[in-house]
Every structure is written in structure tokens, then in C-alpha cells.
Design goal:
The protein is mostly helical. Helix content is 78%, strand content 0%. Among the domains are: 61 residues, no CATH class; 35 residues, no CATH class. Helix 1 crosses helix 4. The N terminus is likely disordered.
């Protein structure tokens, strides 16, 4: 009877220890799971597709502006290249690590709660367009403002690389 009781105590003790280890592992994974859920809310598959589309269109536009000759199916092929270079699941895994490293599980849960609201869902839908319009605005504004500001800060074309400064002029003999 003592042997049976001792076996039961050991089994329960070991079982509790194993159970505690499994619980500890589950707790350790909790922030990662919450971060993954947040990542998938913030970047749903259709949002990822739009982001890849914008990225590939930008690359095609840049190459077109540089005068590169491209076949008619180049934009479609470029989209395939970009998606293969940055697969959705890899993006989700990377962003999950970033969120996990910067936020507590409680903070992640707060964000998940927000992104599940109508306002959070709307932010996810609207943010890519907002960012695109912001980038377009900046790309139109910078060329207008940079030359004068660069000159103001002493880095204008006449004072930049290749232009001799006053100290580099050869001394007159």
C-alpha cells in the first residue's frame, strides 16, 4: 500500500511538474500568439496584396522613368517577383517578432481589441491610402523646397561635392 501511495505521489508530483512546464510554455507563447493575431489584423492578406501591388507598381514606374524597355507583361511578372521575395507568412512572422519585442501581452491585447472595433477595422482599410497620399504629397513638395533649404544649410549644388570650396582653391604665387 505504501508503494502504491508513493507511486501515486510521485506520479502526481511529476504530472504537476509536467503540467506546470506545459502551462509555462503556453504562457510564454501567449504574447507571441497575441502578436500574431494583431499582425494578421493589421495586415490582412488583402492588405498585403495591395501593399505588394503598390511596391511593384512603384518599381515598374521607376524603371520606366529611367528609360528601361520593358515587355508588356512586365508589371504582372514584377508583382510575382515581389510576392515571391516577400511572402505573406514571412512578413507575418517578422512583424510578430517585432510586436512581441516591443509590447507586453497586455498592450498587444489592447491593440487587438481596438483593431477588432469598427474604428480599428476602418483604420486598417484606410491607412494604406493615407500613407500613399502622404508619400505622394511629400514627393511633390520636397523637390520644390529642397534646393533652397540645401543652399540655406550650406549643401547646395554650388557648395556640394565636386565644387571647390574657398579653402581648396590653389594659393596664388
Amino acid at each position: 500500500m505504501k508503494t502504491y501511495a508513493m507511486g501515486l505521489v510521485l506520479a502526481l508530483g511529476l504530472g504537476a511538474g509536467v503540467g506546470a512546464s506545459v502551462s509555462t510554455l503556453a504562457l510564454a507563447d501567449a504574447p507571441k500568439n497575441t502578436a500574431r493575431e494583431l499582425t494578421q489584423l493589421v495586415m490582412p492578406k488583402d492588405g498585403y496584396q495591395k501593399m505588394m501591388q503598390q511596391m511593384s507598381e512603384g518599381m515598374v514606374e521607376g524603371m520606366s522613368r529611367s528609360g528601361a524597355q520593358m515587355p508588356a507583361d512586365f508589371p504582372k511578372k514584377m508583382m510575382a517577383v515581389v510576392q515571391e521575395a516577400l511572402p505573406y507568412e514571412e512578413q507575418i512572422d517578422f512583424m510578430t517578432k517585432l510586436y512581441t519585442s516591443r509590447f507586453t501581452d497586455g498592450e498587444l491585447k489592447d491593440m487587438v481589441t481596438f483593431y477588432k472595433t469598427p474604428t480599428g477595422s476602418k483604420l486598417v482599410r484606410e491607412l494604406p491610402g493615407i500613407m500613399r497620399e502622404s508619400a505622394l504629397w511629400a514627393s511633390q513638395l520636397l523637390p520644390k523646397r529642397l534646393p533652397e533649404l540645401m543652399k540655406k544649410h550650406g549643401i547646395g549644388p554650388d557648395q556640394g561635392q565636386g565644387a571647390p570650396g574657398p579653402s581648396s582653391a590653389p594659393a596664388k604665387k
